[in-house]
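Dear support,

I submitted the protein below through the web form. The confirmation email said the job was done, but the results page showed an empty box. After a refresh the structure appeared. I'm attaching both so you can tell me whether what I see now is the final result or a partial one.
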Amino acid sequence: MDGTEGSAGQPGPAERSHRSSVSSVGARADVLVYLADDTVVPLAVESLPSLSAHELHRALREVLQLPDIALEVFALWLVSPLLEVQLKPKHQPYKLGRQWPELLLRFTDAPDDDVATDEPSLQFRRNVFFPKRRELQVHDAEVLRLLYEEAKGNVLAARYPCDVEDCEALGALVCRVQLGPFQPGQPTACTLREKLDSFLPAHLCKRGHGLFAALRGRGAKAGSSEQGLLSAYRKVKEVVSSDSEPEASLRPHYQAYLTKCHELPYYGCAFFHGEVDKPAQSFLHRGGRKPVTVAISLEGVHVIDNREKHVLLGLRFQELSWDHTSPEEEESVLWLEFDGSNEGTPVNKLLKIYSKQAELMSSLIEYCIELSQASEPAAPQEGASGPSSAPGSLPPPTQRPQLRRQGSVVCSRIQHLATIDYVEEGEQIRPVKPKRTTSFFSRQLSLGQGSYTVVQPSERPEQS
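What the results page shows now:
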């Protein structure tokens, strides 16, 4: 399976465990499809083993009474705690479900006992290949609600790392949707505290104690999260709507939430699990590895630190080249190559991402580039000035200022990565340049994605 057949990735931390989506098999079967808000939609279908994802998608849209645009906006996914796979229309969900153990053995490091008991559920999620700019043209209230619920779940699970002020702004919109218009004195900071994790990511709801928390800058004053959320809730603007339907009246708030999420460069990505080398702490002490999430979308690639909830590296496709090594050659690795600087000398940097999903990531990157060239010719120009621009690049002055915020979680932190640095002519800077028959640069240029621009260290803010 490659990027043209679907995309697989790392499940979120709160995914459902071992839920089957098929309750019976035969001439007629009941299929359970899970929506982003955890609603279960039962579908009675015939000839399940030969049923395609497209046919199942159509049946689900009819039950939910969704407009035709939903066919492009959403896709069916097979999801378990160990693996996520977006299905192409031609895929047969039942057959892929039967092949699930083979997929887990190929693309995860899960123990044999977990592989034997893991079972995927069928979920209705955003299509990775649906452009963000087209999402802004969607006006159907139910489609927007489903997109909002999925985005909210990713924000709360910290799959979409956000700065505190952005978390508060997004949480305030959730308050508006769930609690109605702000009323003075209702709610209070005390009442918000009782269900704070419904509005803010879990790591912002926990308060540190003692010296360690203070040193990490997380010993915030008690009640600061609630007060910040309450203040943002008070500022949510009300929009007068002529539509009397309650769901339609929430449409502006769904749109506001999604528009805010579009500022995050990894919105709408497929997520993959991996590890990267830590920088060595001393001459005799090697840094080891740290777990990361690799987020890939139509715009580019972002490497996210799982523990710190911030970006380590963000690159648009025109700023990188890539390759992967398979387990047959050596350890499965995705290589990312990009411009950088070593003590003032322009160099090429190589980042090594260890992952059994390297093949999937490489194929998805290639497919996203081909798809952007074939069907979205304006995407690279729009990405250069819109919210999808990668932090740390040299954007035009019109880029959204919040993405350039000092210490923002969306800014690259190259200093936290162990990279292989070399110059294009082959002169060694640190370790020896890996052997390969053709340069990553040749591969990148063959795809028509333009030229590199040396990344200036001054444009990469230090971690706060």
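Response: this is the final, complete result; the empty box was a page-load delay. The CA atoms of residues 74 and 363 lie 21 Å apart.
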